[in-house]
Structures are given as structure tokens and as C-alpha cells.
Request: fold
Amino acid sequence: METPRSEDRETGLPALRSWKAVYAAVTVVFLVWLGLLAALTRLNS
Amino acid sequence: MNALDYGVLICLLAGIALYGIWQTRERRSLAGYLKGVGQTHWLTIGLSVMATQASAITFLSTPGQGYESGLGFVQNYFGAPFALIVVSAAFLPLYRKLGVYTAYEYLGRRFDSKTRLLGAGLFLLQRGLGAGITIYAPAIVLSTVLGWRLDLTIVCSGLLVIAYTVSGGSDAVNLTQKYQIGVIFAGMIAAFFVLLARLPDGLGFGGALALAGRFHKLEAVDFSLDVNRRYTLWTGLLGGFFLALSYFGTDQSQVQRYLSGSSLRESRLGLMFNAVFKIPMQFFILLMGVLLFVFYQFERPPVFFNQVAWSRQTAAPGGERLKAIEAGFGSAHDEEAGRLREWLDARRAGDRTAEAAALDQAQSAQKRSEEARSGARTALRAADPKTAAGDADYVFIAFILGFLPHGLIGLLIAAFFAAAFSSKAAELNALGSTTTVDIYRHIVRRGDGDAHYVAASRVFTALWGAVAIAFALFANLTENLIQAVNIVGSLFYGGVLGIFLVAFFLRWIGGTAVFWAAIAAQLLVIVLYRALDISYLWYNLIGCAACVFLSVMIEGVLALGGKTGSPPPQ
Reply:
């Protein structure tokens, strides 16, 4: 069985220090994409 | 294709395969063979996960989807970022903590042997079928348009993948996937720019998008609640979430990719790379299909993109009817192209009235040409029922062969094969690992040394490769290929995901309850698939929900009868 290592808790990313912050950033990126695609749909329907 | 194209194709494919074999020739331990040597960087994992999911079907068929139906298919991937977050936060730490080789090994530790075998068995069944489709799909399209023998294309491409996967195991798969996806991206980007350069003078990217919008090809998000619609925001978010959660969290071909990370951090970053870039990548490929649609409004396309099938039937008795349809299509298309050039001139001159009038007339002509195309498909099917009615899979390859310069044609054909190899290798690697770890080492022969199990894993990988080749040789698919793969996956994934969700989150439920619940859920999905006409993505949710609900019910009944399930987890 592997033991958890302390560096696993850190993301190594400069602006996103915790995994919760990484997951929040991924969600924001998705929402931006969704907004852009919805705008593209609305502009062309 | 000329000698230059063949040179590019052979050098790239054989070079990457030989490099993979050479670099991983020292794998001797079972851990090294099945999980790699544990040095894999997050970017390699990210590209490997992406390459495993994006098969040749993705790059051949998806532009055809964009051409036919616009951008709506991108919604299929809306659930993926959230599924990857759940896998990263909940599934991955447990897999790494327990040091398992396969996802199903975890089920054995959490529940019991029969549940582990059920999970492994469902994976082997659906992924074994999928592996056949993975190898058949590009082979049928490429052999048709290039005039190669289908059986030789299947066997030769299959043997090359088997060679490096058997030789180097998981590391060979990761390593070759990194270079293969480089070839794929290079080919797709090159094709994109050639396509942009081939658009009529004065149209440009913005004009092409404006035109595509008028033909309803840019409707990327559908907020409709109609469950009969195949792709909506809700099928994508809900059905797509469960499909992606099952695929990334429980399918060994993916689990094996991210378990090769040197640390939990590297594995997580590899998954998050996909969470960010999966939707843009699919959008880009669909957009290519939309731009192909615009291109072919000015350039006359074939009435049926599978020109080999079309030519065969027009030369056969009764082919005059098809030729008449083709002539009708040609005149309607020529009229449309003429009107669109008038629209373009009016657009340049800033004459809004003339612009609107020309576009209306072009749309009427396009409607007639689409009716002719639809009539051509019906007539072709009536003349030869064995001919696939759709030609969307041939749209992109027809453009490549007709309009790309030599050298780039070779690069694009290499990209399609590279995509086929990368997903095929991951599937074979996973099928071999699961058979070795969950069946052979678990039941048939326990307690032997690493050398024996590595040899067994090599044999099983080769055997699964042979099964996939045999399946591909006898396959006959009629639906759009990418949909066929997703439908097969959706029928099996829900139940498997249900088992894992019970394992992770309902820790009081034992193996007996979840085992029977999963079997009942699988039967329910098959019955509903035959009885209902709803989007296949919903079966991921139905199968998963049925498995979880029935597990709770059965566990309750067992508790009432005084029979407890498996002992609580460690």
C-alpha cells in the first residue's frame, strides 16, 4: 500500500496552491466555454 | 496518395512504434510492465489520457458530424470536466493508496471476488467489442477511399499495435501516445489552415462563420428539455457526466494511463489537463466540419461522399436513376454556389438588400440540393441494402484526398492511423492487464513470480489483439462510427459505474447486494434500449441509478433476513 506523500497535497501551480482551487478554476473555464458557445448559438439562431 | 505520402506515412508510424519498443525493452517486473516505471510526467499522462479517448473515429467522423449537424455534438462532452474532478478527488487517491493494478482489483478488496469478476467481466466484454470497432472503423473508411484491401489494412495495422504493446507494456503505450498525438495535432492544424486558405477570396473566417450560422450549423447549445433529442445541454451535463465518470473512473484503459504517474500530483494534473482541453479540442474538430460545410457550398461536393460505393452502384443495372439524382443535385448546387457568390459580392459592396436576397435564394437552392442528397442515400440503400446509408465518415477524408498537397495527405493518413493505434494500444494493454490480474493471477494461478505474470500478460495482450482483429474482419457497422462506439459504451458503463459509486460512497453495502443489483441494472438497460427511443446518453444515468437503488434495496432485504453482505471495507 502506498503512503500519501506531502508533495501530493500541493499542486505545484503558482496561482492555484490547493486542489480545491484547481477544481474551481476548471469549473470557471467550463462556464466560460459554455457562455461563449451559448452566445455563438444565440447570435446565429 | 503518391510515394511522398507513403514515405511520410510509413516513417511516422513505424518510427514511433520502433522507438516505443526500443525505449521500453527492459521492462521485467509486473509493476513496471503494467503500470510503468512510475516516472511519468503529468503532461505525458494528460496527452496519454487524451490520446486513449480520441481514437481515429474521433478525427474521421467528428468533422462529418460537424458538416451534417453543426456544433451540437460538443454538448456530449459537457459532463467531462466535472467527471474528471470527481475522479481526481475521490477515485484516484483510493486507487493509488491501495496500490492496485486494475480498477476491478479495488472491487475485490472492497466487496468480494464475484463482484471483482463481474466488474472485470463487463469491462472485458464491452471493451473487447470496442477494440474491434476501434480497429475496424478507420480501416473501412481508409481502405475504401485509398483502394487498399480491407482485410490487409485491418491485419497489418493490428499487428503493428500488438507488437509494441506486447513488447513494452504500459510505458510503451504512454511513450508512443505522446508522439502519436503530436502527429495528430500537426495533421489537424495543417488541414485546418489549408481549409481556411481554400475558402473563396473575400469570405474569410468571419464570413464563413456568418454563412454557417445562416445554415444553422453554429447551434452549439440546445436548452431543450425534450428527452428524445440526442444532444442537449442536459443530456451532455447529466448523461455525459455519468458516461465520462464511468469511462475515466472505472475503465481500465483510462485508469491504467493515470496510475502510471510518478505521484498523485502528476496523475491529478494529467486529469485536469483533460478537464480543461477536452471541450476545446472537440469544438475545434467540429468547427473543422462546419468550415468544410461552408467550403462545399462554393465547391461542388460529390452527391454521396463514399464515392467508391456510389460509382459501383451507378455502373450497376438501374444506375441511370442514381445518375439522374446526381445531375439534379449538381444543378441545384451550381445555382446555390452562384447565389452565394452574388451574396459575397453584395457583402463586399455593403449592399444589404442584395445580400439578403442572394442568401435567401441560396438557401432555397441548398434545400433542393440537400433533398437530392437525401434521395441519393435512399436510392443507394434501395439498390444495395448492404451499403451504409450515411456518408458523414467520408466527408473529411474526401477533402483531404481532393484538396491537400502531397506530403500533407501522408501526414493526415498517418494522423488517422496514429489515433487508431493510440486508443487501440491502450485498450489492448488494459484488456491484457485485467485478464492477467483479475482472472489469471486471481483464479487460475496464484503466487507465481513476476516473470511468469509478465509473460502471461504479453500472451493475453496478443490474444486480445487477435480477438479485436477477428471482430474487425467480420464487423459490419451501419451507424455513424463514433455514435456506434458511444452507444456500446453507454449500455455497459452505467451499471459498472453504479458498482464503483456504491463502493466509494455507500460503505455499508456488501458484495452480494451490489453484485445482483448490477446484473439486474444491466438487464434493465438492455430491455429499455430495445423498448425506448431516447438519447443513448441517458442509459449511463439509468444504469447507474438502477444499480445504486437496487443495491440499497437488496442490502435492506438481506439485513431483514439476517444475512449481512460483505464485511465493511478496510
